Amino acid sequence: MLQRLQIQNIAIIDKVEIELGDGLNVLTGETGAGKSIIIDSIKAILGERLSKDLIRTGKDKAVVEAVFAVDNDRLKDIFEEFGIEPEEDGTLIVSREFTLSGKNVCRINGKMATVSMLKSIGEHLIDIHGQHDNQSLLRTGSHIDLLDSFSDESIHNLKSEYGKKLAEYLEIKNKLKLLSGDQNERERKIDFLQFQIDEIRKAKLKPNEDEELSRQRLILQNAERIISALSKVYELMGIGSKTEKSASDIIGEAVSVMNDISKLDQKYAAVTKRLESLSFEVEDIVAEIRSSRDEIDYDQEMLDQIEERLDLIYKLKKKYGDSIEKIKEYMERAQQELKEILNNEELVNKLKDDLKKVNDELFILARKISAKRREAAELLEKKIGFELDDLEMKNAKLKVIVEFDESTDENGDRRYNHNGLDKVEFLISTNPGEPLKPLAKIASGGEMSRIMLAIKTILANVDKIPTLIFDEIDIGISGKAAQKVGEKMSYISKKHQVISVTHLAQIACMADNNYYIEKSVHKQSTSTTVKKLDENEVKREVARIIGGTNISDITLKHAEEMIEYARKYKNNGMV
């Protein structure tokens, strides 16, 4: 849920911080006080497009920061996708800074992010509905998802099985397309694969060859330096010079001297033995140095050959893999693919048989899903009808149309998609005698808001979005309908955090937390403040909504009665 919202330099807001609570949070205030600006600021956090005109006059940038309490497990996939490190306590901090120049700086838990990342993660955090913001109902394509959200667990299991089968179906189709496709394309593919295989095979690569060649190249490139060093060491240790004895000679003399006294004491004998061992070790080292020196022969032709070979291996690595092992693995895959293409007749026939089998299985699953949707559609129609009746739309009739599409495309293939073969659309008639029509063509803004509220009431127990915002969806309603809207919001707030911007006392009195948005002018500068109301202040605000600025004892009494009714209603768990 949204715990805290901080807004700086947006429109008439200088700096505002709002602490939001569980349940139903209601924002009220005079027209133009800045309630819509707060919703616009939340939309900024959700990655929506912004106009630089929103930046407060005289400022060069605006900042919005939101703190959410989230279920890390529910957001695990999107955290991993974006490389976000979740906090152990489930805190998620999202911020967005935008400037007059159009630059955006976004962060998620301190990590730099893009606007599209905000949008992706925002879809899991908040769902906003307003007088003109019910796009999901206006988009026919979203109706199938709303219906499936209402359906029982069996349809989700079927869709999971269908998804796996669809992936198998598409994989077989892609293989068939490659094997049975355009002849010219097939010949080009054969030539290309054969070229790659020949190029790798001709190289006759050996395991770890590049490492050994690099070692040899290093020695050849430094041959003169190595020979000089080994010769010097050979002289010092083995043969000596005209003026100085070698280490071997010195150690030999030491052995001879120690032999004279070795029998006098055991410790002298031990030292003598160690010197003899050292003498043998030095002789071995001298022999190895001489052999290593004599083996080195600077050969420019050999160095050129090694350079040429390493260059070949480098080019093959760039094309086929970053190691000799991966290059060989690539060749094996290419050989297998070439074999499949060259021997495709038998394989094509097998794939066609497999495709027919999978297609039949997929079609059966699509049928089962469709049947489940039709069952859910009948139940949803009844439940929405009840809710609409309760929301004072007594003549409204909503119909959920589920059409199973058995048509095929120009290739004779069924039009499978991730949802099956169904087309789902919600149709409505709001007055007696009117035919059923698409929602976008018949429902007014106020009706659309109540329809969405009816759906959200029904889906409250299964909807995974933790926070719902209703932005002035009460426009155009009053009286009993307004009371019912408030009751529905209260019901939804038992399972979700609800934030409502309203002008109706019937909704304000149902709130668990009330906030008053006020605009003030100081030294020719306009600013907005947000105050959380205590019990007495809530009563006066409800009275103000009922009777305007002139708050009388009668309006206060009326407000007190409405608040008491709301308290009893919520405590009794009605709806």
Automatic annotation (TrEMBL):
<dbReference type="InterPro" id="IPR003395">
    <property type="entry name" value="RecF/RecN/SMC_N"/>
</dbReference>
<dbReference type="GO" id="GO:0006281">
    <property type="term" value="P:DNA repair"/>
</dbReference>
<dbReference type="Pfam" id="PF02463">
    <property type="entry name" value="SMC_N"/>
</dbReference>
<dbReference type="GO" id="GO:0043590">
    <property type="term" value="C:bacterial nucleoid"/>
</dbReference>
<keyword id="KW-0547">Nucleotide-binding</keyword>
<dbReference type="InterPro" id="IPR004604">
    <property type="entry name" value="DNA_recomb/repair_RecN"/>
</dbReference>
<feature type="coiled-coil region">
    <location>
        <begin position="317"/>
        <end position="368"/>
    </location>
</feature>
<feature type="domain" description="RecF/RecN/SMC N-terminal">
    <location>
        <begin position="1"/>
        <end position="522"/>
    </location>
</feature>
<keyword id="KW-0175">Coiled coil</keyword>
<keyword id="KW-0067">ATP-binding</keyword>
<dbReference type="InterPro" id="IPR027417">
    <property type="entry name" value="P-loop_NTPase"/>
</dbReference>
<protein>
    <recommendedName>
        <fullName>DNA repair protein RecN</fullName>
    </recommendedName>
</protein>
<dbReference type="GO" id="GO:0005524">
    <property type="term" value="F:ATP binding"/>
</dbReference>
<dbReference type="GO" id="GO:0009432">
    <property type="term" value="P:SOS response"/>
</dbReference>
<comment type="function">
    <text>May be involved in recombinational repair of damaged DNA.</text>
</comment>
<dbReference type="GO" id="GO:0006310">
    <property type="term" value="P:DNA recombination"/>
</dbReference>
<keyword id="KW-0227">DNA damage</keyword>
<comment type="similarity">
    <text>Belongs to the RecN family.</text>
</comment>
<keyword id="KW-0234">DNA repair</keyword>
